[in-house]
Each structure stands twice: as structure tokens, then as C-alpha cells.
Amino acid sequence: MKKTVSYYEFSDWFRQHRPNNFSRAGLLALWEMLENYEDCTGEEIEFDPIAYCCEYTEYGSMEEFWQDYPDEEKYPNSDAIMDYTTVWCFGTESFIIQEF
Predict the structure, then answer these.
(1) Nearest-10 Cα torsion for 57, 60, 62, 65
(2) What residues make up the domain containing 27?
(3) Regions of the chain where pLDDT drops below 70
């Protein structure tokens, strides 16, 4: 049994249950990333917000990223991170990665 979830339901769930996982812009970027995946693969994704919190992390800058992955030479920018995982850039410096 599946239910289609709107962006409002998606973002509302996070605001109510996990308000510190993603910013407002980050939630929109995550939604777009998941929608893009569905469009490209033709595969529907189950709405599993806890899994999204574990699988994806939002960073506001490379400096924030380097706090979790402190190898600036290996990961000098978001393009270099793409060699290791999925990266979804949004805004001026913000991006979401799939944990690796």
C-alpha cells in the first residue's frame, strides 16, 4: 500500500518531528533530489523520513563539511565529493550529500 506525499506533507513531517535535520531550503532541495531520482529511474520511493535523516546530510558550506570529513586536500570542493557520493547543490554554498 502506497500513498503519494505532497511537498507540504513532506516538509511538515520534518518540521514537526526532526526540525534540526534540514533547513527550509535543504528540505526543498532534498525533495527535488528525491523527485529527480524517481523521474530518472521510474522507480517510486517509499516515504521514509528517518532513513532520509540517516542517509543524507545538509551542509551550509565546505567548512561545515570539513568538520565531518577533515581531508581538505581530498575534498577541496563539492565537485570532488561527487567522486565518492551523490551531491545536490543549492543556494550559493549549501549542498546535501548522501552519506558515505
Answers:
(1) -30
(2) 7-98
(3) none
97 touches 57 (CB < 8 A): yes
Q: Has residue 1 been placed in a domain?
A: no
What's the CA gap between 65 and 75, in Å, rounded? Answer: 9
H-run or E-run covering 64: helix 62-68
Return the closest-CA partner of residue 19 out of 46, 73, 47, 58. Answer: 58
Residue-level pLDDT at 2: 76
Size of the chain, expressed as the number of residues it contains: 100
Q: Structural domain tally of the chain? A: 1
What is 13-60 written as a DSSP string? HHHHH-TTTS-HHHHHHHHHHHHHHHHHH-PPPP--HHHHHHHEEEES
Query: pTM of the full predicted structure?
Result: 0.90
